[in-house]
């Protein structure tokens, strides 16, 4: 995702943190750094030479065959790269943040990675190998050249909501929180639904469940039409996509809160 997605995931999650978790998170942020700023750090880091090793941690390249087959398989899709994927990275960072023998800076970094990866693992094209996760599919978006990956990361959402300003992010977060608590998502945003896999001792299994859910959208919508190359996607396609994007961001925020609560307090806190 871009700034809009990641910052909303983090702000939404902050609304569901148990008090002890909120204190913990605060302890591992820099002075003056918001949880939203911390959630976007990993993309900048991946683009500087020092952090290049972490580039493959932002996705898992499911080598499935959309739109016919969508499935994520850890041994086939993650270990192959040698440098890890979003699933192995989440497992490692979940271990590191709990490791009290690590220095503060390392645990703080693990927190920033977790805040970011819970977001990315819900972006359908961050779970898909085909055409480099859509990066190689050139399309048009409101008459401008773009690639499929970038419109799913940010351009579709921004075409409906504008630039990711602080006000915009707060109002989007409020809207998603309303949908979770009393609206469209209420029946799914439950401990038994979105909260089903929040088991930090089976982090790999949970991350695979989340990645698998995101990957299902690749068959059901993202790459359902086999020929997107060169097409204008700003109209009907974007209108169908925005609902999927918003729900995926809501899911990510809800699960991020549950995950952090599990890490710090040992219960997800989503039913309180
Ligand atoms: N590079 C290779 N595969 C990718 C993906 N699925 N998402 C983002 N970048 C990638
Ligand atoms: Zn992306
Ligand atoms: Zn990323």
TrEMBL record:
Gene Ontology molecular functions: endonuclease activity; hydrolase activity, acting on ester bonds; metal ion binding; nucleic acid binding
**What range of the parent protein does this fragment cover?**
21 to 292 of 337
Q: Which UniProt keywords apply?
A: Disulfide bond, Endonuclease, Glycoprotein, Hydrolase, Metal-binding, Nuclease, Signal
Kindly provide the name given to this protein in its UniProt entry: Nuclease S1
Source organism of this protein record: Arthrobotrys conoides
The UniProt entry's sequence similarity note says:
Belongs to the nuclease type I family.
> Record keywords: Signal included?
yes
Might you name a Gene Ontology BP term for this protein?
Answer: DNA catabolic process
């Amino acid at each position: 995702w871009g700034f809009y997605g990641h910052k909303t995931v983090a702000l939404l999650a902050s609304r569901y943190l148990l008090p002890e978790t909120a204190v913990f998170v605060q302890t591992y942020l820099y002075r003056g750094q918001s949880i939203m700023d911390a959630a976007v750090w990993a993309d900048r880091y991946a683009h500087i030479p020092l952090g290049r090793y972490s580039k493959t941690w932002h996705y898992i390249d499911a080598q499935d065959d959309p739109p016919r087959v969508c499935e994520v398989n850890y041994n086939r899709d993650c270990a192959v790269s040698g440098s890890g994927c979003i699933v192995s990275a989440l497992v490692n960072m979940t271990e590191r943040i709990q490791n009290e023998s690590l220095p503060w800076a390392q645990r703080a970094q693990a927190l920033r990675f977790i805040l970011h990866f819970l977001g990315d693992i819900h972006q359908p094209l961050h779970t898909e190998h085909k055409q480099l996760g859509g990066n190689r599919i050139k399309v048009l978006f409101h008459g401008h050249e773009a690639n499929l990956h970038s419109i799913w990361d940010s351009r579709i959402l921004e075409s409906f909501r504008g630039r990711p300003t602080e006000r915009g992010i707060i109002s989007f977060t409020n809207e998603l929180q309303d949908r979770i608590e009393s609206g469209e998502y209420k029946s799914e945003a439950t401990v038994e639904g979105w909260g089903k896999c929040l088991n930090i001792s089976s982090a790999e299994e949970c991350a695979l469940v989340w990645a698998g859910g995101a990957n299902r959208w690749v068959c059901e919508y993202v790459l359902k039409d086999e020929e997107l190359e060169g097409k204008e996607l700003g109209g009907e396609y974007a209108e169908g996509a925005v609902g999927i994007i918003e729900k995926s961001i809501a899911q990510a925020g809800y699960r991020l809160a549950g995950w952090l609560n599990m890490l710090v307090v040992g219960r997800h806190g989503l039913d309180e």
